[in-house]
Amino acid sequence: MIYFTSDTHFGDPRVLRIDRRPFPDLASHDATLIQNWNSMVKPEDDVWHLGDFMRETGGDCDQLLSYLNGRKHLIVGNNDPETTVRARGWGSVQHYAEISVGSQLLILCHYPFRTWNKMGRKSINLHGHSHGRLKPFPRQFDVGVDAQALRPVALETILSAR
């Protein structure tokens, strides 16, 4: 299976206030996101994290990655420090990616686009950054945890929602 997620902001106390995530403290926030991730993602699954993984002062990124199931790929977000980008636990790290799954082209970036490659040929733009606050365009999908019940979303769910 292939999963997508974004904007976990592990170790970042600002998300409790700014995004009004329903947790009494950061420890319970992080523990719940890890549990939600691992309840869906199996070790053999691929997970594309579309940015804003964790705060630099939030701990050891490689240790956190070791707690999370799946082969993990990072699309860099605006709040990803070098300690996150350089962590050894990522299968790949880039700012933008285009991947094909079967005949479906997926355009991956932390930011939502107004237009994207092969938009007129039914490609899909997956993004984070907006924390569920933007009205989506056709064939555009916010995979951030705030828009996805605080958990990764499977590609089959995305494809069935279009």
Helix content: 10-25%
Q: Under CATH, the topology is which?
A: Purple Acid Phosphatase, chain A, domain 2
Q: Find the CATH superfamily.
A: Metallo-dependent phosphatases
Give the overall form.
globular
Radius of gyration: 15 Å
Which structural category fits the helices and strands? alpha/beta
Distance between the termini: 18 Å
Query: Which percent range describes the beta-strand content?
Result: 15-25%
Spatial arrangement of strands, main beta sheet: 4-3-2-1-9
Q: Please report the first level of CATH classification, the CATH class.
A: Alpha Beta
Give a concise summary.
With 162 residues, this protein is α/β, with parallel strands linked by helices. The protein is built from 5 helices and 9 strands; from the N terminus they run E-H-H-E-H-E-H-E-E-E-E-E-E-H. It has a single domain (2-161), classed as Metallo-dependent phosphatases (Purple Acid Phosphatase, chain A, domain 2), CATH 3.60.21.
Blueprint of the fold:
Elements: E1 2-5, H1 14-18, H2 26-40, E2 46-49, H3 61-67, E3 71-75, H4 82-85, E4 92-94, E5 96-101, E6 104-109, E7 124-127, E8 140-142, E9 153-154, H5 155-161
Parallel strand pairs: 1-2, 2-3, 3-4, 6-7, 7-8
Antiparallel strand pairs: 1-9, 5-6
